[in-house]
User: Fold this.
Amino acid sequence: MHELVMASALQLARRIREREVSALEVVQAHLEHIAAVNPRVNALVQITAEPALATARAADAALARGEASGPWHGVPFTVKDVVEVEGVISAAGLPARADFRPAADAVVVARMRAAGAILLGKTNCPPGGGGGWTDNPVYGPTNNPYQLAYSPGGSSGGEAAAVAAGMSPLGIGSDSGGSIRLPAHFCGVARLKPTHGRIPNTGVLNHPGGLFSDPRTQIGPLARSVEDLYTALDTLRGVDEHDSGVIPMPLAGLDDAPLGGLRVAFYTDDGQATPTQETQQAIAASAEACARAGMRVAERRPEAIGAARAITERHWERQKLSGEQITQLFEEWDGFRSRMLAFMRDYDIILCPVDYRSAGPQPRRPLTRDAAREDISTFLGAADPLRFSVIAPRVPWLAPWGRMAPPAEYLFVRDILAA
Assistant:
């Protein structure tokens, strides 16, 4: 079972397609693993076992007829609880929604299903889907699978914990101010916050989409493999004739840009929140690996990054601002982006810490003594969080926290080429 639950999503897709293993076997293995692990981690809050098994049987029957639905034929996936699923409770951690069952799938769920993926369930999040800790009055806290007394962060903490613990090979989360990036960092998995305008937010609670409503918020995948992120992005992207902020945007291939000659700027400290020594060492080692791969690497930090948090804090308080103040805010935001664009005339990539710290203890609701001492690392195959570094290509955006990377379209490299 461990072989199946710790395989990458694309590895599972290939093995199912080549009939080395059935979709039913894969789904059953994940459901058994969820039953064993989830009571201690509390990552999945709704488990769609019977529909998943039925869909897996149908997928195997289709494959026997020579029919495959798409790149994810027979592969399980999970979604953050703010992402609506037809007929499945979507509480999003809010007591008022504890029995709410949507009438339709969110666009991202529909697209994953159309590509052959099989939904295993929904994962925990803070109330309403936003916040730095994954805990709520409906389902309680999610625990970090590396250390159960620690938090996976938030707000897509349930997804990060599920993927890290092998309960899901591929998850769908959402991110405004680090809600995919932070928990993935805390749990040691790969993740992608796509460029604004790539993926529709349609059918996601408190994620209105559109050109102006909240351009900071995007839907994106989490996985244990960079290749999985790319294929998920390709599945999820594109206009849906509803989210007015999504536009047709070409997607280059993973191999279209040769590594040799790429220009890399890196920094280990943004000057506002000094990272841990281990984090700084990981970034420096990643920069050295980039150089060994033939990239041109320079230690340089964008001066504009220091303005990011102040702009974000004003955006959070925009309901209290006058019309003139909101206009000024967006002028400053545009100015920030222009300064970042100017910086990136000389660089293709910014390499920097995701956050200044690693995972820490749960801030509330302390675990029982026995649970706090328990460690399920034997169930895990994900890498140490510090082995993952962030590479941000040339699409600068508002860095939502001064201590984080600019949330452009990220590529996450495990041990950067293992060089």
User: Anything to note?
Assistant: The radius of gyration is 21 Å.
